[in-house]
Amino acid sequence: MQFANIQEARDFLDQHPEVRSFELILIDANGVPRGKLLHRDELLAIYENGRPLPSSILALTIRGEDVEDTGLVWEVADADCWTYPLPGSLTLQSWRATPTGQLQVSMHPTQGLPASPADPRHVLVRAIDRLKADGYHPVMAVELEFYLLDKNRDANGQPQPAVQMNGVRPAAPQVYGVYELEQLQPFLDDLYAACEVQGLPVRTAISEYAPGQLELTLEHRFDALQAVDEGVRYKRLVKGVANKHGLQACFMAKPFGDLAGSGLHMHVSLADAEGNNLYASEDPYGTPLLRHSIGGMMASLLDSLAIFCPNANSFRRFQANSYAPLAKSWGVNNRTVSFRVPGGPAKSRHIEHRICGADANPYLAAAAILAGIHRGIREQLDPGEAITGNGYAQAKEFLPTDWLTALRALASSEWAKEALGEDFLKVFLAIKQEEYRQFMGEVGEQDWRWYLTHA
Mind telling me which Gene3D superfamilies this protein's record contains (predicted)? Predict the structure, then answer.
C-alpha cells in the first residue's frame, strides 16, 4: 500500500490559494464515499501524520447505519483507525460553488487496525499483488452506465428522466442517439471539464438503451489499481456535476422495471512486466491464457455473485433480451453473454466482464474478477465452447436471480475466504445480511397493491 508524499499537498496549496476546504473520502463496502469536510489548515497534517477515522465507518449499511455484527462497533469501542492520502488523489471539485479540494484516503495496514481488513481497496491490492507475484500484470478499464434524473418526482411520486435542453422529457430509448447527447450539452461540457481537472481519462459518451441513460467510457490503464481508483472518483464526480445542474445521477442497477438496467462493465487483460498483452492473438478467441481466465471467472461466478450484485435491486436487472447476462457463458463479439471477448486487432484482445450492476463496489468487483482469473490460470480451467448467436436462447447454467441465494453462496465459499480475505468477508457479509433483514422486513406500496385486498 503506497501513500502520498507531503510535497504533493504543499504544491497543491501553493497552486490553489483560493481553496479553503477539502472533502476527505474513504470508500466503504457499498462503494459509498464517507469522510469529512476539512479546513485548509488541516491538510498538511493529514499527509504527515494521517487522519483518524472511526472503525465503524467501514461497518455501515448503504443507509449509513452501524452493523454491530461486523465486530467494528462496540467490540472495539469504535476505535480511531488511521488513514493516509492516496497518491494523485488530491484535486479540485470544480463543480462546487465554493472552491473545494478533494482527497481520497485508505486505511493504513497496521495503524488502521482493526478496520483496515475491511477496507475494500485493500482487497483489490491483495488480488493484484498475487497476480503480479506470478508474473501477470492486470490491465483494466471501467465502464459505468447511469440514469440522469430529474430531482423532482412525477405526479405518482416516481423518479423520472431529466428534461433536456429542448424542454422535452425523453420517453423513448433512442439508443446511440447523437441528438439526445446534444440536448445534454451543458451537463456533458461540465462533466468533461471536471474530468480534465481531475485527470480522469473519460472519452466516448453514449446515449444508452433507455430515456436519460448514459455511458461515458474510461480508458484502460496498465495499472489496474489506478483504473479502479479513477472509476470510483469518476462516479463521485458524476454525482457532483449532476447536482450542480439540479439533476440526480442514479447508479441503481434497475431503477425502472420496464427500462434497461445499468451495468458496471469491467474490461481486463493480463500483461507482462514490459506491458505486452498476454491475451494478444490473431485468433479472435484469444490465447489459452485468455480462455483459462474465463474458465476461472466462470468457476467462481456463483461464489462472487453477491459482490457483483450486492443489493436487492441488483437482481431485478437479470431479464432476458435486456443486454444483462443470465448465465455462465462466453463468446466473441457477443453482447448476450456474461464474458465477452470484443473484436479488434490482436494487440487489443481482452475480456469484458458484463455481470456487475452499476451499484457494485468497483474495488470489490475488480478484486473478485482478478481472483477468479488467477484461479483459472492456476487450475488451467476450460470455459467450454463459446456461444455463437443468441446467448439467451442457448443458456444452460443460469445465474440465481435472488439476493439471499447469492449471499449464502458467498458465505459458504472457501474460495472467497481465501481470495478476498476471511476478515473482510466477515464484515461484508454482516453488512449485507443486516441489509437483507431490513429490506425484507419493510412493507410498502407493492405489498399493498398485490395483497391488501385479495390475500
Answer: Glutamine synthetase/guanido kinase, catalytic domain
- Structural domains in the chain, sorted by start: 6-113 (3.10.20.70), 127-431 (3.30.590.10)
Q: How many CA atoms lie within 13 A of 272 on its CB side?
A: 4
Neighbours of 135 (CB within 10 A): 11
The DSSP 8-state label assigned to residue 331 in this structure reads: E
CB atoms within 10 A of CB 414: 9
Q: Name the helix (H) or strand (E) containing 410.
A: helix 403-411
Residue with cell 493529514: 46
Q: How many residues does the chain have?
A: 455
Average of per-residue pLDDT values in the chain: 94
Encode pLDDT of 123-153 as tens digits: 999 999 999 999 999 999 999 999 999 999 9
| Segment 215-252, tens digit of pLDDT | 999 999 999 999 999 999 999 999 999 999 999 999 99
Q: What is the pLDDT of residue 323?
A: 67
- Spatial CB neighbours of 80, under 8 Å, sequence gap ≥ 6: 52, 53, 54, 55
The answer, yes or no, to whether residue 166 has pLDDT greater than 90, is: no
User: Looking at the DSSP assignment, which residues form a beta bridge with residue 436?
Assistant: none
Instruction: Please list, residue by residue across 197-222, b when 16 or more beta carbons sit within 10 angstroms of its beta carbon and e when fewer do.
Output: ebebbbeeebbbbbbbbbbbbbebbe
Find all residues with CB under 8 Å of 390, minimum gap 6, and list them.
Answer: 336
pLDDT in tens, 356-384: 999 999 999 999 999 999 999 999 999 99
> Could you tell me which residue, 154 or 236, shows the higher pLDDT?
236
Q: What is the DSSP string of 26-82?
A: EE-TTS-EEEEEEEGGGHHHHHHH-EEEEGGGGSB-TTS-B-GGGSSSTTTTT-EEE
Retrieve residue 451's grid coordinates: 395483497
Closest alpha carbon to 192 in 210, 212, 171, 216:
216
Query: What span, in angstroms and rounded, lies between the C-alpha atoms of 272 and 262?
Result: 33
Measured between alpha carbons, how far is 107 from 3 in angstroms, rounded to an integer?
Answer: 10
